Amino acid sequence: MKELRAQRADFHGKSDTRAHSIWTSMMSRCNNPNATGYARYGGRGITVCERWKKFISFLEDMGDPPAGYTLDRIDNDKGYCKENCRWASYIEQNNNTRSNRYITAFGETKTLAEWARARGMKYITLHRRIHLSKWPVEKAITTAVK
């Protein structure tokens, strides 16, 4: 009986996979008011499309996550669906959060972290130069670190 119940509950054979864990977390943070993060997802109107309410459909659309990649919504104000989601590296995902501050210099707009990486300096150094010391952005980006 126990084996039969297990087969019914896990008809796709993927319950122990990383993809299923990601799907379960997505469903929880969008639908369960008691879930950690609900206020930032379901609580602010982020939903899961009807198709993805079934794990197997989510898996068909997204495939298995590549190692080191997480589920990312391209537009953070829209819900989870095939058109708005991708597998993203941690760096890509951190560059795609609502809390990021964008800086424009030399005709390019990037996050503070992207500018720091591009110039080979620590994020905190660039942050202090711009926000605490009030340096002009282009000077803060181009001045060598001592």
Characterize the structure shown.
With 146 residues, the chain is α+β, with helices and mostly antiparallel strands. Helix content is 40%, strand content 12%. It contains 7 helices and 4 strands, in the order αααββαββααα. It has helices at residues 2-9, 18-31, 55-62, 90-94, 112-119, 123-132, 137-142, and strands at residues 69-73, 85-89, 102-105, 108-111. The strands form 2 sheets. A two-stranded antiparallel sheet has the order 1-2. The radius of gyration is 20 Å and the shape is elongated.
H and E string: HHHEEHEEHHH
Average residue-wise pLDDT: 90
Query: What is the count of DSSP helices, taking H or I runs of 4+ residues?
Result: 7
* Quaternary form: single chain
- What radius of gyration results from the CA coordinates? 20 Å
Structural class: alpha+beta
Main beta sheet:
2 strands, antiparallel
Lateral strand order in the biggest sheet: 1-2
- Strands, count: 4
Q: Classify the helix fraction into a percent range.
A: 40-55%
Distance between the termini: 70 Å
Shape: elongated
Extract low-pLDDT stretches: none
**Percentage of β-strand residues:** 5-15%
Short descriptors:
about 150 residues, alpha+beta, two-stranded antiparallel sheet, 4 strands
What can be said about this structure in brief?
This protein has 146 residues and is α+β, with helices and mostly antiparallel strands. It contains seven helices and four strands.
